[in-house]
Design brief:
Blueprint (H helix, E strand, L loop, with lengths): L23 H20 L22 H12 L11 H4 L55 E2 L5 E3 L7 E2 L13 H6 L6 H5 L6 H5 L4 H13 L5 H7 L11 H15 L6 H6 L8 H10 L19 E3 L23 H4 L7 E3 L21 H9 L1 H6 L12 H4 L9 H8 L11 H12 L25
Antiparallel strand pairs: 1-2, 2-3, 4-5
Length: 469
């Protein structure tokens, strides 16, 4: 071993003049190595030095029951699970719409049609209010890393409850749910505006005003009466010997396995890059990647393999729509995470969404405030300005004269507007138009084209016999 009198590593040039007891051949070899290392550092593109996540692998996703997934596909499209039997899970999370509905705020129970063509219905069944939040895409919801679901995180893992999950049903949530995703699947059917129906329209709508488990009991009876479902449940769950054994736990588990199987998305150009394919991104996408993981600070919140920290942040998004309030509140506002935690600091905070397939899942934000990626990015760069000067043409809303009268009524509440301006968790650096454009290009590299429209696809029919949209 060579030992120098000082402890500093000599420069490359010093090897030719500094005296050492190192053999000349070894000294030359070390000099060549250090020169090569320096050259590599100087010539390595800056995007390659970003701290990127590890590539996704099979073990990052929970194991699935394929027979249950096939059953879940039918249940996902079957309107039998809704109060008036006129809406399914797929209405707001459709294959043709990249597992969403393409609207800022959806039209739930009582509406007619899909996506931007969906209308608010007619007569007594006409929709009375919009769905309060944007329908999220379902990509990678089977990943183990998810800790909360819904924009406010009201469904989460928590061993304090017998079911293992903290949900709006509290102790009434049954045991046996196989995942957080299954726990989440129990709740759209209990929502009056989404699937259950309003007030006294049907038996399920009445049950929602009492307890959620009353809703689930009614749905169980419906499914047990459909003979074509029984063998499908038996194939997926050996413990089911006869139709009376079918429960909503089986339904939710099947729905969860279907969603997790159907919309797994981990074959994008970005995934290829993480696995070593340096040519998978264009030069502009690489420039956007460098911004995303560097100057633009996007990865502060959109971190990890799925570009989400699974945390909650206040972005000062504009307020509109019916809002989502507690039962004792009667104003059209949405305070987000505080509704679940009762902590003042959680006011107007919402869950960070994953950015996988983000180019296909517009509009953006917990209320779909922006129909373009450029719009939501520029809001992040200047939240206060965007809040004060919101461009309503960014909305994608089903036209309805009655609903439109109150869409922005909350803006008349000066105190609420002042409260919203007090909560902001981001302060990002300015970006040029060229940098914004590069970011958008990089986000395109997160698209897995093979996953956009699912693996199994939509069924042509369902066991209940109700028409499939």
């Amino acid at each position: 071993m060579t030992i120098y009198q000082d402890e500093c590593l000599p420069t490359i040039g010093e090897f030719t003049s500094r005296k050492s007891v190192m053999a000349p051949g070894i000294a030359l070899l070390l000099k060549s190595f250090l020169a090569g290392l320096l050259l590599a550092i100087l010539t390595t593109p800056s995007w390659a030095q970003a701290k990127l996540p590890l590539p996704l692998k099979d073990s990052d996703y929970r194991q699935l029951n394929t027979d249950a997934a096939k059953l879940g596909r039918l249940l996902f499209y079957d309107k039998i699970l809704s109060g008036n039997q006129n809406i399914a899970c797929s209405t707001c999370h459709h294959h043709d719409l990249a597992s969403g509905d393409g609207l800022s705020l959806g039209i739930g129970e009582g509406g007619i049609g899909l996506g931007s063509k969906r209308i608010t219905g007619k007569g007594e069944s006409k929709v009375k209010r919009r769905v309060s939040r944007n329908a999220s895409g379902l990509f990678n919801v089977g990943a183990k890393e998810f800790t909360h679901f819904f924009h406010d995180g009201r469904v989460s893992v928590d061993d304090i409850f017998p079911s293992g999950f903290n949900t709006p049903a509290e102790e009434f949530l049954p045991k046996g749910l196989n995942s957080l995703l299954a726990a989440q699947a129990m709740f759209p059917v209990t929502s009056p505006v989404e699937m259950a129906g309003e007030r006294n329209e049907n038996q399920i709508a009445g049950a929602t005003r009492r307890r959620p488990d009353y809703v689930w009991a009614i749905l169980e009876k419906r499914l047990r009466a459909i003979s074509d479902y029984t063998p499908l449940f038996q194939a997926a769950y050996p413990e089911i010997k006869e139709s009376s054994d079918i429960t909503m736990v089986h339904v939710a588990n099947a729905l969860a396995d279907f969603m997790a199987f159907e919309w797994r998305a981990d074959k994008s150009p970005f995934d290829a890059l993480l696995k070593g394919d340096k040519a998978s991104l264009t030069a502009k996408q690489k420039a956007g990647l460098e911004l995303f993981y560097g100057k633009a600070e996007c990865s502060t919140c959109h971190s990890g393999a799925l570009q989400t920290d699974h945390d909650f942040h206040a972005l000062m998004l504009p307020s509109f729509g019916p809002g989502r309030t507690r039962r004792f509140e009667f104003i059209a506002r949405d305070r987000g995470r505080i509704n679940e935690t009762d902590r003042l600091e959680d006011s107007y905070r919402f869950r960070t969404p994953s950015l996988r397939n983000v180019t296909a899942t517009a509009p953006y934000g917990h209320n779909g405030a922006y129909k373009t990626l450029e719009g939501i990015i520029r809001h992040h760069l200047s939240p206060k300005k965007s809040f004060n000067n919101y461009d309503r043409t960014q909305l994608v809303m089903a036209g309805d004269a009655y609903l439109s009268k109150t869409d922005f009524i909350i803006n008349q509440d000066k105190r609420e507007m002042a409260r919203m301006r007090r909560y902001l968790d981001i302060d990002l650096p300015e970006l040029s138009d060229a940098e914004v454009s590069a970011l958008i290009d990089f986000l395109g590299a997160l698209t897995d084209d093979t996953s956009l429209y699912g693996r199994l696809g939509a069924p042509e029919s369902v066991p209940s016999g109700i028409a499939v949209d």
